[in-house]
Specification:
mainly beta, eight-stranded antiparallel sheet, binds 6-O-phosphono-beta-D-glucopyranose
Length: 290
């Protein structure tokens, strides 16, 4: 539907106005179906709440809003490499797009009341990541949150991309929740130099947990009083993370708040990384709701 109607529900604001911490430009969406806050930097969704539902995403009470730094919470997109850059560990963790300016390329209010926002990002190719690429993220904001990614390799040859939507979900106490949907799946344990292990039953978080599940199922459920459902298409890796108390104490934007979130991240990393030929593109989708 019309861009005009979308304008009535999409407002530009900033982190000073919304959180009392100036620093980043934000987009506030309010429709009869949901409320969302998005940082144009990184096309990072910070808040999403469907009408009559509890908030879907966790935004750290200690989050910082600084240009060039990722905000702790919501859904940062880690790309074109996930985690530590294995070729050069001195490069920034989780790639470069989460801390860069993106452009809001368009918005449409659909007939069913859902709002679609489209963001785009172009990387020219440089010393951080040699291949040029183009990235589009479409957010469909309704009762369900739907994220679509399209990534196009614009480099002259084949390039490898690993990435994830690094989603932070709110929980009352991370020690009391379970994640279902990863049973009997192999993982790389990032707390033990990526040793391989197999997840037996449901996943729990008694302390630091940092696991990369390759070739994972496309559906998970975070079991709390108000469960969260995660379904993806063409995301073959799932990463689960909570730093636990000791590590969190060293993270200024987490600290004592570590109990209040769990990360269940969908993407394609490690064995599932995308190898794209020159000019080739690939797509993935994530559906989240509670
Ligand atoms: O602090 P960052 O760079 O946002 O990363 C947070 C965590 O992100 C997770 O995805 C990784 O598996 C962890 O190893 C990492 O610590």
């Amino acid at each position: 539907m019309s861009e005009l109607q979308a304008k009535d529900t999409v407002r530009r604001t900033d982190s000073g106005e919304l959180y009392g911490k100036p620093g980043l430009e934000l987009i506030l969406v309010e429709t009869p179906l949901c409320r969302a806050v998005i940082a144009e930097q990184g096309a990072q969704l910070l808040e999403f709440q469907a009408a009559d539902r509890e908030p879907l995403l966790w935004l750290s009470p200690a989050a910082r809003f600084v240009e060039g730094r990722s905000v702790r919470g919501g859904i940062p997109l880690c790309l074109p490499w996930f985690g530590i850059n294995r070729a050069d560990p001195h490069k920034p963790k989780h790639g470069l797009v989460r801390t860069r300016p993106w452009s809001l390329a368009g918005s449409d209010l659909e007939a069913d009341g859902e709002l679609e926002l489209r963001f785009s990002f172009d990387h020219p190719g440089d010393e951080l990541f040699e291949a040029a690429f183009h990235c589009e993220v479409a957010m469909r904001l309704g009762r369900t949150l739907t994220l679509n990614l399209r990534l196009e390799n614009r480099g002259p040859g084949e390039a490898e991309y690993s990435w994830a939507w690094h989603s932070y979900f709110p929980v009352e106490n991370v020690r009391e929740i379970e994640v279902h949907g990863l049973e009997n799946t192999g993982y790389l344990d990032n707390t033990r130099q990526l040793q391989r292990a197999i997840q037996g039953g449901s996943l729990t978080f008694p302390g630091e947990v940092d696991r990369v599940f390759e070739n994972a199922a496309s559906h998970q459920r975070i079991v709390t009083d108000s469960p969260i459902s995660l379904t993806s298409e063409n995301c073959n890796s799932v990463v689960t993370w909570n730093p636990g108390g000791e590590l969190a104490a060293e993270m200024a934007d987490v600290g004592e708040h570590y109990r209040g979130f769990v990360c269940v991240e969908h993407g394609n990393a490690f064995a599932n990384s995308w190898r794209l030929a020159a000019g080739e593109s690939a797509k993935a989708t994530l559906y989240l709701r509670r």
